[in-house]
Amino acid sequence: AQTVTQSQPEMSVQEAETVTLSCTYDTSENNYYLFWYKQPPSRQMILVIRQEAYKQQNATENRFSVNFQKAAKSFSLKISDSQLGDTAMYFCAFMKLPKNYGGSQGNLIFGKGTKLSVKP
Amino acid sequence: DTGVSQDPRHKITKRGQNVTFRCDPISEHNRLYWYRQTLGQGPEFLTYFQNEAQLEKSRLLSDRFSAERPKGSFSTLEIQRTEQGDSAMYLCASSPRGPSGGPFSGSYEQYFGPGTRLTVT
Prior knowledge:
The complex is a heterodimer.
Chain A: E1 3-5, E2 10-14, E3 19-21, E4 24-26, E5 32-39, E6 46-52, E7 60-61, E8 64-69, E9 74-79, E10 88-96, E11 108-110, E12 114-119
Chain B: E1 5-7, E2 10-13, E3 19-24, E4 31-37, E5 44-50, E6 53-57, E7 65-68, E8 75-79, E9 88-95, E10 111-112, E11 116-120
Parallel strand pairs in B: 2-11
Antiparallel strand pairs in B: 1-3, 3-8, 4-5, 4-9, 5-6, 7-8, 9-10, 9-11
């Protein structure tokens, strides 16, 4: 069974600074996706960034980037130039890929989340 | 609004009552998921539909829970004889079919709705 661990329940950062959120996972699978989702207070879950395990290059989306270390099973999220709107719960998630096309698509396995507060 | 919608947004019910939630996925998304999120936890998978077929069910989905997606569009999640432990946020997500070409050619991104918050008193 796959597990996802986020070891930082809460973090805070000053506006315009950089912060890194940690995530580790455990799996025996070789083909999978990793995601970071953001859940602002009282609002819905939004996808921040996605990483395919077969890609060595780390994914980036504007101010968000990941450090994917497949051998170490580590998948951290770096937020640069933090903004007040980045205040939210951040969830790391794992998805196992189907072994053949048309096979049942894997569900997301989430960590417990990290509550990030960006302070003015 | 073309995102995933859920109804109702909030539901308060007494223990022992039945409740039903509805999810409308993004148009043409053939995959639909239900998750449950309790306070301080990440979402936990409940069940998954591809079109109208229910392909996966978590062991969290006890026999008091049933989900349907009769025409491959909206889905309903029913909880019978609710218990206080059922109090949670129930999230629905949908995902598009990837382009043909193998298991790695789809985005596999799931788009979430706002959730239905259930309180059982």
